[in-house]
Amino acid sequence: MDRSVRCSTLIAAWLVVWGAIAAPVAAQPVFFDDFNGDSLLPHWVQPPPTDWEYNVGDGMLNVTRGIYPSSPQTPKNVTLMAASIPTLSDFRVDVRMGWDEGRGPRRLGIGIAGGAYIASMTYALGGDPESVPIIFVGNGLDGFPLPAPTFGLHDFVMTRAGSRLEFYLDGSFFGSLTDDFNLDASVILFDFAGPYPGEQGSFHIDQIRIIPVPASGMIWLSLVLTTLGYRRRSVE
Asked: Per-residue pLDDT tens for 100-159?
């Protein structure tokens, strides 16, 4: 057998083995919501109705406006919703979320925490007319920005294996950070902000899934995420 063919065969066999190990784990989410129906499920701790305007429809949570604090002393209104999750060490968080066109300052973020923020990915646009939208990833202490994709739905992935945090956007590796806190994850949060005064443009949450992933499974996960893209659904 030709050496290159034999090498390819061995690699394929190795992937099958790792896939068999990782697949049972990936099939057991500890938290899932695809926002079907016409209301939020009770696992969400919601802001008071006076703090935001939203609807659940077309299989998505659609946040159309933030109302709190609506004060001349602040340039934006903020909203936060959260849910408790089973305590996790190593994890993978998959979120499909997105935004419509809108003016700054505005923000849509997903975070996982346990007494403090462990990891977060945030779409943000500043209030300066020359500001450009960014995706900011953080670990509660440090982080970095990269240019954001255009409006629409996008796939965000955060993983932790040991002290390493990895971030993926639309199936491509986005970057990594070191987790210095070493806290167990127990809370998932969504963060919304829009301009005051002004219209933020709607934010959309299509789906969230959280999976416990052993460190050994991260090898398979990294390989798959960097070679396969995620199917995306556009906002009608």
From this structure: 988 778 999 999 999 899 999 999 998 787 889 999 999 999 999 999 999 999 999 999
Parallel, antiparallel or unpaired: strands 143-147 and 76-88: unpaired
**pTM assigned to the model:** 0.79
- Contacts of residue 9, defined as CB under 8 A and 6 or more positions apart, other chains included, come to 1
Confirm if 35 and 207 have CB atoms less than 8 A apart. yes
Residues 164-192: tens digit of each pLDDT: 999 999 999 999 999 988 999 999 999 99
Strand partners, 92: 159, 211
